């Protein structure tokens, strides 16, 4: 009974979620500052106004986190987590509405962080209010609004999880591309990485007599193509991920702008092979000085369930094959990459049923290419994490970022409904 009631109430929050998302977007919480002070005080005001128990947790006073607590009669606690920090907005000219305008137009809220992920935060706030007003809950529910997700959760989820503040049985991550009612989806997990840095050392000389030096840029350029070959290293993956990987690829083909055969091929290979891209390059001090130092950084992403240490060993082999003296590879890789939950777990099955009832269509299970707060929560607490939320495909981290208001409403329905539906 209560499931239907809260879902119905959540379906009537169109204006409220739009307003809350717009309000959050107006506070610039972009990195490098990444301050969540204003967002947290905005959420606190809302929670206090509606009589919802809440606590602010901060190690860095500039990056507070806030939790809303709804007390049920039972012992189980369901968690929800979403982040309030956003990536930098880039040049303001690229934006149709200002990046911090929070403009409500054409069925969307516009601005930096609307999709990733103040929209889900607005849905979480509304769900907390509805659950608090309805009562009669068996499960305890905690909505965590965090800082620092975009830089690894240092003062946010990572600290909260590591310090034992985050405790519960299961966790829904709002940072997710839920696919609306057209193609509903639940994230089972996300990729991890094998961050790789190449450092080349040479000998400096006057730019007019390069033969007297040993150019570090030349050396680095010779080794980079070898590291790129890691993109052809076939990963060994757990069989239970075969179906979610297939559905994820189909989902991307439907939701991403894949306008060339190369892009389609890249998506087809996205999980069976590492993705690799050289994203930073640092070398040289002056145009007439032969550089004695050069470095570059690769972003290498691995499917959960694969073996990062094997990838690390292969990269070391490739660098050795390049055979350029004075070039060193520093590779960060652990035992596991990212994380995933089994699609057959109780949690996954019950969230699947909830989304199906509310969205009117069976959701697919998929794997995220990027990381979320789930990585830290899973790593430090072991709590299973599944993603569901209103991120709109192809908009996160882009100019003209926007979120669909109807998707926020849908998320609020799922967050509220699941609090009643989950039976452990
Ligand atoms: Zn995010």
Question: Would you give an account of this structure?
Answer:
It is a single chain. The strands form four sheets. The protein has a six-stranded mixed β-sheet with strand order 1-2-6-3-7-16, with helices on both faces. By secondary structure, it is an alpha+beta fold. The protein folds into two domains: 3-190 and 338-421, Aminopeptidase (3-Layer(aba) Sandwich); 192-243 and 267-331, Alpha-Beta Plaits (2-Layer Sandwich). The chain has helices at residues 2-11, 14-25, 37-49, 114-134, 157-162, 216-228, 242-255, 261-268, 308-322, 346-359, 374-381, 405-421, and strands at residues 53-57, 65-70, 77-83, 104-105, 108-110, 140-146, 170-173, 185-190, 192-193, 195-201, 275-283, 293-302, 327-332, 339-340, 364-368, 385-387, 402-404. Helix 1 packs across helix 4 (114-134), helix 1 (2-11) packs antiparallel against helix 12 and helix 2 (14-25) packs across helix 4. The structure holds zinc ion (ZN). Zinc ion (ZN) binds at residues 83, 116-117, 149, 175.
Helices, strands, pairings?
Elements: H1 2-11, H2 14-25, H3 37-49, E1 53-57, E2 65-70, E3 77-83, E4 104-105, E5 108-110, H4 114-134, E6 140-146, H5 157-162, E7 170-173, E8 185-190, E9 192-193, E10 195-201, H6 216-228, H7 242-255, H8 261-268, E11 275-283, E12 293-302, H9 308-322, E13 327-332, E14 339-340, H10 346-359, E15 364-368, H11 374-381, E16 385-387, E17 402-404, H12 405-421
Parallel strand pairs: 3-6, 3-7, 7-16, 8-15
Antiparallel strand pairs: 1-2, 2-6, 4-5, 5-17, 8-14, 9-12, 10-12, 10-13, 11-12
Helix pairs in contact: 1-4, 1-12, 2-4, 2-12, 4-12, 6-9, 10-12
Bound molecules: zinc ion (ZN).
């Amino acid at each position: 009974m209560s499931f239907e009631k809260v879902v119905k109430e959540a379906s009537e929050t169109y204006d409220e979620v739009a307003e809350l998302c717009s309000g959050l977007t107006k506070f610039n919480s972009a990195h490098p500052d990444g301050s969540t002070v204003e967002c947290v005080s905005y959420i606190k005001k809302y929670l206090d106004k509606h009589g919802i128990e809440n606590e602010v947790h901060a190690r860095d006073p500039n990056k507070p986190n806030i939790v809303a607590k709804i007390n049920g009669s039972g012992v189980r606690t369901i968690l929800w987590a979403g982040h309030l920090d956003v990536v930098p907005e880039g040049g303001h000219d690229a934006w149709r509405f200002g990046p911090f305008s929070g403009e409500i137009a054409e069925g969307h809220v516009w601005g930096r962080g609307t999709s990733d992920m103040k929209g889900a935060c607005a849905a979480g706030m509304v769900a907390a209010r509805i659950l608090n007003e309805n009562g009669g809950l068996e499960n305890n529910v905690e909505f965590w609004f965090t800082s620092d997700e975009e830089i690894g959760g240092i003062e946010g989820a990572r600290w909260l999880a590591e310090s034992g503040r985050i405790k519960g049985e299961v966790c829904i991550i709002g940072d997710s591309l839920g696919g609306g009612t057209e193609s509903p989806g639940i994230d089972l997990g996300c990729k991890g990485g094998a961050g790789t840095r190449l450092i080349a050392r040479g000998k400096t000389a006057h730019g007019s007599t390069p033969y007297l030096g040993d150019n570090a840029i030349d050396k680095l350029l010779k080794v980079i193509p070898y590291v790129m070959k890691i993109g052809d290293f076939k990963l060994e993956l757990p069989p239970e991920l075969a179906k979610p990987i297939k559905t994820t690829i189909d989902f991307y083909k439907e939701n991403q702008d894949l306008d060339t055969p190369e892009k389609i091929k890249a998506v087809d290979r996205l999980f069976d092979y590492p993705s690799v891209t050289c994203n930073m390059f640092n070398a040289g001090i002056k145009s007439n000085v032969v550089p004695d130092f050069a470095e570059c950084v690769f972003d290498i992403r691995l499917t959960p369930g694969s073996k990062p240490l094997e990838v690390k060993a292969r990269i070391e082999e490739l660098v050795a094959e390049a055979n350029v003296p004075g070039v060193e590879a520093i590779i960060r890789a652990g035992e596991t990459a990212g994380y995933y939950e089994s699609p057959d777990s109780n949690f996954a099955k019950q969230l699947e049923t909830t989304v199906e009832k509310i969205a009117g269509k069976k959701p697919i299970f998929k794997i995220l290419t990027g990381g979320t707060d789930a990585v830290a929560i899973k790593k430090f607490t072991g709590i299973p994490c599944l993603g569901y939320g209103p991120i709109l495909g192809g908009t996160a981290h882009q100019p003209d970022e926007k979120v669909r208001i109807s998707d926020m409403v849908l998320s609020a329905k799922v967050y509220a409904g699941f609090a009643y539906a989950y039976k452990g």
